[in-house]
Amino acid sequence: MSHILNIKTAGIPLNQAEKALIMIHGRGGSAQDILSLSQHLNVKDYALLAPQALNHTWYPYSFMAPVDQNEPWLSSALEMVAETVKAAVDAGIKPENIYFFGFSQGACLALEFLARNAQKFGGAAAIIGGVIGDKINRENYKGDFAGTPVFLGTSNPDFHVPVERVYATANILREMNAEVTEKVYANFGHSINTEEIELANSIIFK
Q1: Is residue 1 part of a domain?
Q2: Which residues, by range, are in coiled-coil regions (predicted)?
Q3: CATH number at residue 123
Q4: 101-110, pLDDT tens digit by residue?
Q5: Per-residue pLDDT averaged across 20-26, rounded?
Q6: Element (H, E) at 149
Q7: I want to staple 163 with a disulfide (CB 3.0 to 4.6 A). Which of 71, 83, 156, 182 is the partner?
């Protein structure tokens, strides 16, 4: 089973934009859902790109399941993110002007992609997510973020994402020279709160 490249767009037309934001939806969500969130972000002058997962799911099992159980969907999903980045680069947008926003399964996918492909990006906000796998395979994660700002927001507890994995992810990204800010909200639930949006705006989309 693999995804078919299907990128929904909004904001400034890609060929006229200097910055691009790649938005990655969660399980059961859609590209249109996550794009609608952009009205709350400081991204008025960005091209917005949101890949759509086949059947609204990037991979079938928990992100904490053994990686091979989520294949070949996971590799296909990572390829979709790579193709979305390539679309922005091909339009003349520099990697340091490419930004990411992901929620839940989309946050996990964004963080896994970034950790595997670290370089100087514009920044990333990941709400309720962490790198993928039952065990963290540090050998998969290569590159240097060169100070890329990353915001991680989450709830503790969260039914899907243990807070320990969020902290472990933050540490990996820091080792790779990302400027990481994490914020943990007690018993907030599996959703995005207004303070997380404000922090994403002040740290990433400033």
Answers
A1: no
A2: none
A3: 3.40.50.1820
A4: 999 999 999 9
A5: 98
A6: strand 149-156
A7: 156
Say if residue 1's pLDDT is above 90: no
Extract long-range pairs of 86-92: CB within 8 Å, 24+ residues apart: 87/7, 87/14, 87/49, 88/14, 88/20, 88/22, 88/47, 88/49, 91/14, 91/15, 91/17, 91/20, 91/47, 92/15
Taking residue 80's Cβ as centre, other Cβ atoms within 10 Å add up to: 24
Instruction: Tell me which amino acid residue 18 is.
Output: E
Render pLDDT for 58-85 as a digit per residue (tens, 0 to 9).
999 999 999 999 999 999 999 999 999 9
- Within 10 angstroms of residue 130's Cβ, the number of other Cβ atoms is 28
Question: Is-cis flag, bond preceding 149, omega within 30?
Answer: no
125 within 8 A of 100, measured Cβ to Cβ: yes
- As for how many domains the chain has, the answer is 1
Closest CA to 126 of 113, 143, 140, 138: 113
In a domain, 154, yes or no: yes
- Residue carrying the six token digits 């059961």: 28
Burial state string for 22-43 with b = 16 or more CB within 10 A and e = fewer than 16: bbbbbbebebebbbebbeebeb
The torsion angles phi and psi of 192, rounded to 5 degrees, stand at -105, 130
One-letter identity of residue 94: K
Provide the pLDDT for residue 132.
Answer: 98
| Domain presence at residue 144 | yes
Number of neighbours of residue 21 by Cβ within 10 angstroms = 28
